[in-house]
Amino acid sequence: MLLKEVEYVKPQSIEEAIAFLSESANGRCLAGGQSLVNVMKLRIASPNRLVDLNGLHELKGISKDGNYIRIGAMTAYRTIGESSLVQELVPEIAHVANHIGDRQVRNRGTIGGNCCFNDPTSNFPPLLSVLEAKFEVLGRNGAKRVVEASKFFVGPYQTDVQRGEILGAVLLPQCNDKSGAAFLSLRVGNDGPAILHAAAYIQLTESAISTCRIAIGCVYNAPYRLKNAEQAILKLGPDSQQIRQTLKTVSLGVEGISDSHGTSSYREKMATVYATRAVEAAIKRAKGERPA
User: Fold this and answer.
1) Listing from the earlier edge strand, what are the strands of the sheet with 134-138?
2) Strands 49-52, 7-9: parallel, antiparallel or unpaired by DSSP?
3) Residues 29-75: tens digit of each pLDDT
4) Distance CA 241, CA 179 (A)
5) How far apart are CA 103 and CA 185, in angstroms?
6) Which of 129, 131, 118 is nearest to 36 (CA)?
7) What is the pLDDT of residues 89-127, one digit of tens each?
8) In the chain, how long is the greatest CA-to-CA distance?
């Protein structure tokens, strides 16, 4: 299906981009276009103005910012996956970026577009939630605010970015020598639609788990933290058998959607399985093992 007629503008500065968005009742930012253009073709979204951000180089790039890694919102997946800085300090982000879609998607798709589109099946939101990433949101007259991941992802295809604002950057806390993160995905076939995502972040002491964060995706309207499981695991050492037995007995509180790819009951069972695997993988990475 062809696109409807839509006004296209390409701003030369962040201020101009924000002005274009503020003037339009139904304007949308165009990043890589890998998701937005498809839903426009299906008439699911019908913006009257597309504001192309690809010319704004200040929204691209990766750098250290204190204890954070700053990734510009318009940075492509390929750039993230190939970044030695990301590979060293937040390796699971690089790993996920290298496995999104095909080469064309990785060349064009951006982390900002992925987060702001906020498809419930997107890979990054659950992982960014357990990493406790922060989002730098830019507004008119140089306004800037920083939003925590727990408040950024509001609902399906909705974020905390308001009309007249754009996402400037994603801020990622650096993983240290005793911490690790993992992301796993259950799909229809190898490359089919996602049924469930699970992400985990683990911080170790000498003999125990001092920090545990687990989130699942594809089940609710936004990444869902498994608080009961997190608290139960904090009482344990980093022993896989103990973790498996504990998570089997803990109520995860998952009552997600049913669709053509899986029932709510199936997703609930798989949430336990994949949360366990994600925690085990995160523990291994906290011990210094690299993902396969």
Assistant:
1) 62-65, 68-72, 166-173, 134-138, 144-148
2) parallel
3) 999 887 777 777 778 777 889 999 999 999 999 999 999 999 999 99
4) 20
5) 19
6) 118
7) 999 999 999 999 889 999 999 999 999 998 888 999 999
8) 61
Burial (CB count <10 Å: 0-12, 13-18, 19+), residue 2 = exposed
Q: Domain 7-52 class?
A: alpha beta
* Among the listed residues 261, 244, 88, 81, the one whose alpha carbon sits nearest the alpha carbon of residue 176: 88
- Record the tokens describing residue 287, joined without a space: 């011990």
* Residue partners of 126: CB distance under 8 A and separation at least 6: 183, 197, 198, 199, 215, 216, 217, 223
Q: How far is CA 118 from the centre of its chain?
A: 8
223 in Cβ contact with 120 (< 8 Å): no
Q: Are 27 and 49 contacting, i.e. CB atoms less than 8 angstroms apart?
A: yes
CATH says 57-173 is which class?
alpha beta
Instruction: Tell the CATH topology of 179-287.
Output: Enolase-like; domain 1 (3.30.390)
Residues 136 and 74: their CA atoms lie apart, in Å, by 13
User: Which amino acid makes up residue 106?
Assistant: R
Angstrom distance (rounded) from CA 108 to CA 78 = 8
- What are 158's strand-pairing partners? 155
Domain with CATH 3.30.43.10 in the chain: 7-52
